[in-house]
Amino acid sequence: MCYIRFLPVLFIFLVVQNFYGQREASRWYFGNGAGLDFNSGSPVALTDGQLETHEGCSTISDQNGNLLFYSDGINVWDKAHRLMPNGTGLLGHESSTQSAIIIPKNDSKTQYYIFTVDEPDPEEPINHGLNYTLVDLSLNNGFGDVVTYEKNVHLITYNQSDPAESFLKCSEKITAVQHNDERSIWVITHFIDTFYAFEVDENGVNATPVTSQTNTIVPTGGYKQNGIGYLKVSPDGKKIGVAHSQVSFSNQSGPKTPSSKTGRVLLYDFNANTGQVSNELSLLSNNVPYGMEFSPKSTKLYATANNYDKDGRPMGSTLFQFDLSVSNIPKSQQDISTSSNVAGGLQLALDGKIYRAGYPINGAGFNISVIDNPELKGAMCNYRQNTISLNGKPAELGLPPYVQSLFLFKFEFTNVCYGDATDFLITGDAPFDSVEWDFGDNTTSTDTSPKHTFEKPGDYTVSLIKYVGGSASDPISKEITIYDAPLVPAELAEYFQCTDNPNNTGIGIFNLNQINSTVSLDTDQVINVFYYNNLLSAQKDTTNTNALSYQYTNSKPDEILVAKVINPISGCKSYAEVQLKMKPSTALDISPLKGCDLGDGTGEFHFDLKKEAIRTELNLPEDSSIRFYTTETKSSIGTEDYLPDTYTSGRKTIYVRINNKNSCYGSGKFELEIESFDVIENQEVLFCGTEGYEMTISATGIVDNSEDNYAYLWSTGGTTPTININKPGVYSVMITNVIGCTAQSSISVIETIPPTIKNIEVSNDRLEVFMNENGAYDYAINDEDGRYQESPIFQNLPTGTVTVFARNKNDCGITSREVSIIAYPKFFTPNGDQVNDYWQLDGLSSEFELQTPIFIFDRFGSLLAQIDPISSGWDGNYKGKPLTSSDYWFSVKLDNGKTLRGHFALKR
């Protein structure tokens, strides 16, 4: 069977997102039954409209300029000028500046949203604010109907905790522009000091707006006038302008005297990607502005403002122009026309001109005005007053607004596969007499919708210039990539599936996903592959929904399938043939894999390391595919639910499948074993805070603490089992065993302070040691290396000088102090039995040479006796008479100048 290298098949690669056609803005209905038709290139009056509105209105047509429906924000009329069955009761207002705007729903040819804004009137009991309603033209036999379950859906554009804002809800302003993604639309309004940008996409209206706060505050006081004025975004989506008819805190109405003319025209930057508004610039102050519009190329901004004399009587209006291409925009202000007409709304049309509504202050307006060349400066813009006839129908103040991006001159393209003719399509409603295309490969065309075949794949810059009245526009350009078809084998490809059955008949289950790398040779591209029994089936299945199941059982030995190989980015495709064959499987002997114990009966296994080990053991090529499965059936088929490189499991059997190039190589199995690896997670050791002290800490607690079996990494950077430290702190160590399991231990090194003796209290033959710090200490008498005790109290000590030793139990130093002990009897019994008949300071050594007699006192401090230190002592008599049994006190001055005091008992 012959191989099919590449068959060019038309694949529609739409850059256009079914967004705009050509003439959605070709028909206008406004005022009292007035209308204009722009389909012929020049505006022609329409008199069949049913609108009777002072200001707000909106109209939409199809891509061929045929009327679809229109609205004043309250009622909806169909293309036959009849009220739609549910097309009444919308929440706009006939005296709202921009009562309604119609927005197409993306990815739908029949559904549109009508956004409405009420007139915020402090004297009305209810203000409805901003709402939207869905119209579906597939209903009512194609004439359309309002979808009742999505009618007057309210959107929040105010601070719900502020009673004044919650009452008024919104201004009379609304505008729209395309998102930078060229799919969704931003619908934008303003209230008080905030812009609200709502995104409308294929999913509908996102009720959570992007908000942007401004420097200028339009207060709720006076809002019946404050809310008046147009809001417009530039066609290129980069600027947004707002006209505030008044910025006042007072609701008082009356003539527009100079002191009450507080209105402003403001310009901002708009980000069509995020919906954010920024960088406020004041263009006009202390005025009464109303209408506003940008030129088609967004280089000029026009605004209308009403004029009044000093007594507040109306004196017509002025049309202003601002040049957005200069550095100082406010200074570029030019008075284009001052006339007796009221200000009126401004609206860009598909002929590239800007039209102005309105009427003379003392009459009706059966004509409207036009700016013929809005891109030109000053008088060269060619403003013509009241020259567009409405055939007897009176204009009022408003004109229908549109999604401003309609008026851009744009193009899109389809079919970008090499060998196909690429189709080019002009989009937007901008008019032209003729065009010139430059395809970036030294070829051009003057066709409106040309087809062009590029000579080779690659990137091309395609440019388009339009001509209107002999004048050429600036070129618009796009980068286009022409893609080659996916690369596939030049001959019949073979793919081998393994079988463990030596008597296999050539029939088996093939995982067609495994064949993708055999039939697709583009390793640097994202490629999709679908399989069919024959070429015709592959070509007819344009949606790829009838492709063979990827787990496919061949119908006969050595069956040949057709693979459709598609680049999903470009849609380009090629076809290849692949033959399904069976071959004996190679049995693989694979050693067990150890995983790291996670402490819950499972382990962590690193299959990426196991793959490298298997590849080395079997000497497999680097591009061989090694996959692990939990069942033998999955392994034999090679399903796509193979195990990840890091796998958590208990002990079990794992099955292996190895593919090499276009062939199954073999299969096998191995066991998962859990490696136990325990360390003491947290330890505490004490650090002696002496100068120059160092200690060693160790990563203990490992099952096998051999340096050959573990690697260490300390928080200090050390890599040995132990480290020396010279300061307290928390030290951590990461321990890794030979299979890569890791455990971490933390050692808290706590500082302990060397001992210092605060005081030693001596009383007779007893002493007690007091330390400067709380801690764990041992104590000894006279021998530093002798027997230590925990108690700081020693008793029954002989008279003499003793050395007291105190040591830190944590081996943090020893301190000592000498102390003198003078022992004396605690009682005596002067009863004449020759035993304890006298009380005396016995056993004093020469170091205690007494300087004075020993004085004896009763408990009242009366001196009873004084005895010589070398005499036999006191006999218990006072003035020759024996004293009664009681406690008595003594005092004696030692040779070092200190006085020894104490007490003893006399017992009879």
Polypeptide structure, described:
The chain has 6 helices and 67 strands. By secondary structure, it is mainly beta. It has 7 domains: 379 residues, 7 Propeller (Methylamine Dehydrogenase, Chain H); 64 residues, Sandwich (Immunoglobulin-like); 92 residues, Sandwich (Immunoglobulin-like), CATH 2.60.40; 89 residues, Immunoglobulin-like (Sandwich); 70 residues, Sandwich (Immunoglobulin-like), CATH 2.60.40; 65 residues, Sandwich (Immunoglobulin-like), CATH 2.60.40; 80 residues, Immunoglobulin-like. A hairpin with a 4-residue loop joins strand 5 and strand 6. The N and C termini lie far apart (138 Å).
Helix content: under 10%
Q: What is Rg? A: 50 Å
CATH class of the largest domain: Mainly Beta
Oligomer: single chain
Compact description:
With 908 residues, the protein is mainly beta.
